[in-house]
Amino acid sequence: MRKYLGIAFLLMGIVAIQLVASFTDSVYYLTQLTMAGYYTMAVLGLALLMGYAGQISLGHAGFFAIGGYSSAVLTTYNLLPYRDGLFYRLLEALQLLQKREDLYGDTIVNLHPVVAMVVALLLSALIAYVIGIPVLKLKGHYLAMATLGFGIIVYRVVLGTALFGEADGISDVPPFRFYGDLGISGDMDLRVENYYIAWISVLLIMVLFINLLDSRVGRALRAIHGAEDASRAVGIDTGDYKLKTFVLSAVVAALAGVGLTHFNGGIGPSEASVMKSVRYVAIVAAGGMASLWGTMVMSTFLNFMSLRGYFGSYDDALFGGILILIMLFAPEGILSISFRRAWKRLIPRTERVRDGDTEGR
Amino acid sequence: MRVISRVFLLLFLTVFLVTPVMASDTIKIGAILSVTGPASFLGAPEANTLKMLVDEINSKGGIKGKKIELIIKDSSASPEKAISFAKQLIEEERVFAIIGPSTSGETLKIKSICEKGRTICISCAAAERIVNPVARYVFKTPQKDSFAARKIFMQMKKMGIKRIGVVVGNTGFGKAGKAQLEKLAPEYGIDIVISEVYDKRATDLTALVTKLKAKGVEAVVNWSIVPAQSIIAKNMRQIGFNVPLFQSHGFGNIKYVRAAGAAAEGIIFPAGRLLVAEELPDNHPQKPVLLKYKRDYEARYKEEVSTFGGHAYDALMILVEAIKKAGTDREKVRDAIENLKGFVGTGGIFNFSPKDHNGLDIDSFEMLTVRNGKFVLLEK
Amino acid sequence: MGVELFLQYIAAGVTYGIIYAIVAIGFNIIYNTTGIINFAQGEFVMLGSMIAISLHGVMPLLPSIVLASVVTMFIGALIEVLFIRWLKSPTVLRMIIITIGLSILIRELALSIWGEGVRALPYFTGNEVSSVEIGMIRISPQVLWVVGVCLFMVAVLQGFFHFTLLGRKMRACAANPVAARLCGINTKNMVTLSFMLSALIGAVAGCVVSPITYSQYNMGTGLAIKGFTVAILGGLGNSLAALGGGIVLGILESFSVWFMPSAYKDAISIAILLVILFVRPSGLFGSKERMALKEF
User: Which of C34, B2, B238 is nearest to A291 (CA)?
Assistant: First the structure.
């Protein structure tokens, strides 16, 4: 039961922050915390892939964007002109359509967000699976470049395709209602509810990951990270485990994309950019590579600060700086920093300190 | 577990130490501009312009005795940041109005947020979808793309051009322009033989202009706001492709002319009158406004004024004018903007109406050309 | 497609290709001596041209280019000494992340120094509209400068690596660092030298392409990605192969415009890269054995 202690703390933290915010009349902080929550989901998936399976991905924003964009396209595409078609009637009979009025009083009929979400998740899983097979055979720089390349292709495609709104992205995405009015939406009145929706999702993913790592899979992943050849020698199907982790992390990123798109009511190409992927990597690095908790904390903190605009025009520079500082002085993550050791690192020619990296060159 | 406790401490501290300070004897105006990032060529001059104007207004005692408190948020052209900032400005800063965002994509994302938050938003972005359909609280200052397209086609008709090629950059501006050009061309009996999109960071477009040349077009329209538009001009001349080159109103930055050097000579494009302020006849109503803005900006920032900064100038001054007329009641100010007539700005003379939240007509454009490295009126 | 058009595309492709190749060669030099892919390589190109443009305000063209290249070279050395030299057997992952961070920092620094504006060096000969007619095609004289300077640099590099003591020491380090150290070569200094060399090449390349492509604080990222693609396309580590890979990619890109919307041009070149990575990671001109040898 010890492993659930952290989850209990997280739950208490989530509730405590909401209570304090409500009591001090500053619920508006929850808006950015909700957004940070969705990014945290995506980053946790990446942490599983990077920290535990030892595979870098410089294209993770691509999966976030695949989720967000598919859901946005499917829930904004007006199906009304096709109302006489067989397919439309079939969807209508299955109650998979949603009728609504937009800001200007026009009627729009679109797919229900649940359908859109299912499609988005399946699509991202499929894409991750198909590209994962060849990509995960690569190592080191080749792996980094291949994932970076994947991210760039996604970015180029959303930027160059009319269906995805090109540079403008997609706006006026409807809320994702679960029951009555309750659901993912950027509405001011549903701020607290949305905060809980986002963070309970983070919590559930955390539970899933912790259990996963505590199982046979987790031990296999750690073995792969430690010494891939050795683990293959003892009979672990390394390729299979890596691929499954890759697909899982992609699906989680896509889910985060779906959530944030409905919360924001839109998505733009910046979500697919290389800089976004680099940010995710920066956060995982700052969180300590193989620490889900550290990653969660750093992600919440950094995303919250960035979305509040506290970093001003130095947002990107700050993320670059974090990457360098963490990798130079504390490759195990900022929360595990020991100043004495960092000092030793600074001064060359002292006796060799244990290097935190586990992957050989 | 130590990790977690440290974390929450950290979070609590950041959340509750930074609480906004309230001041009631000022008018709070928020601005969401992409000061850095891929659209910084828009956001940077816009932010500079706003700072300069607010300093000037405040040093003269503010509007009706109230000083302006300007909050500039740098969105670096990311819609998700613009959304977060818009919510912040509306819900916690409770700003009187929002100026910006700089790009169309961001504006379209926050349009419904401003609408629901009943906050005036005067966008500095170009796309027509910002004001069409009209949203009650959303206005924009740059001229409509369709007027620029019409101006270009009218000029082509005069020159007897029938078959043209269209190239645009892959930005929101380019996308909107392409749509307008393709929609309006048949009206003027002009045939778009080929239309192409190129990357906003392209470094050499020889292959693209070669393709245009092979199609035998009589003129090329390039619609973009990025540096690559000077590259088009150069590459066309270098491969000996000497048909007239039309640019959009996004060419309104003398830096681009300088970058294109000799290749910029003879480029024809529609633009507001800011770029040719000195050349205007003395009785032109815009002349004093344009000259003052130009001189002030160039004296303070030591760089040439661009039409983009002018959009922010217009946005702020329209708001100030409406506040002067209607006081500090937001609804009344909104009505005042909607009924503002004959307001002289840098982009033209604004005549708003409940149906037109842009307020500029086709006469806000002049056809300009480049002669000896300078912008001049095409017909004079 | 007529012959004239065909040749024009080839010429455009070769121009792109040589620009990419020169960035790729910078990658290769550092990769060979350290096993690091320097993701900040594009930033050297940007720094070289931006510094040259600033200097050109106060001095003639040639000295400003030379001085800018030297300054960039020392920036390269400084980066190595500050961020790389004292790390003890860093992992590939760590080095990738450090160089990515560096590239972001340098870019943001450049933004605050030079602003977001576009600048350019003047054309070395002629101006923006002048062109040279070669056979049926017309190209800008600056393209000839780019081709000439880049080929010259490749030749000088080959000479340096094969016929000078210093160059041979660097090759020794690339082939087998431990053995090189046993022979009394200071491998750490060789690494610093490789950063200087690759910064120098980047800076010179930045200066010659500046009149064609313009210089802006964010020009490095795009060039770095293309350069990296070319380095892998040719075969990581080999300069002549990079030249070949560059020209192949450049020509493919330039012809791709004919067949499909140019908005997808970059996606095409990246897709080619992915295919190469999957099918033939040693590159078009490389082989597994050669890769193990790490020859320049």
Answer: B2
B54 inside domain: yes
Distance CA(C243)–CA(C249), nearest Å, equals 10
Q: Which of B271, B302, B322 is the last residue of a domain?
A: B271
CB of A338 within 8 Å of a chain B CB? The answer is no
Q: What distance in Å separates residue B263's CA from the closest CA in chain A?
A: 28
Cβ contact A320:C104 at 8 Å: yes
Q: Does one domain contain both B76 and B194?
A: no
Q: What is the pLDDT of residues C90-133, one digit of tens each?
A: 778 888 889 999 999 999 999 889 888 788 888 888 877 778 88
Token pair of B346, please?
């840098």
To the nearest whole Å, the CA of A262 is away from the closest chain B CA by: 12
With CB atoms and an 8 Å threshold, state whether A320 touches C37.
no
Q: Please tell me whether the interface predicted TM-score (ipTM) of this complex is above 0.85.
A: yes
B4 confidence band (pLDDT: 50, 70, 90): low
Neighbours of A99 (CB within 10 A): 11
Nearest residue in chain B measured CA to CA from A303: B81
Q: Which chain A residues contact residue B37 at CB under 8 A?
A: 316
Kindly report the CATH number that applies to the domain delimited by C3-293: 1.10.3470
Secondary element (H or E) of residue C134: strand C132-134
A195 inside 8 A of chain B by CB: no
Strands B163-169 and B374-377: unpaired
- Is the distance from CB of B122 to CB of B97 less than 8 angstroms? yes
Q: Do B173 and B59 lie in a common domain?
A: no
Q: What is the reported pTM?
A: 0.89
Number of domains in chain B: 2
Strand B349-350 versus strand C132-134 pairing type: unpaired
- B131 and B35 share one domain: yes
Domain span holding position B223: 145-271
Within 193-232 of B, beta carbons closer than 8 Å to A belong to: 197
- Residue A193 neighbours by CB distance under 10 Å: 18
Domain boundaries, chain A: 3-314
- Taking CA atoms, A298 is separated from A39, A356, C129, in Å, by 11, 19, 53
CA distance C25 to chain A (A): 16
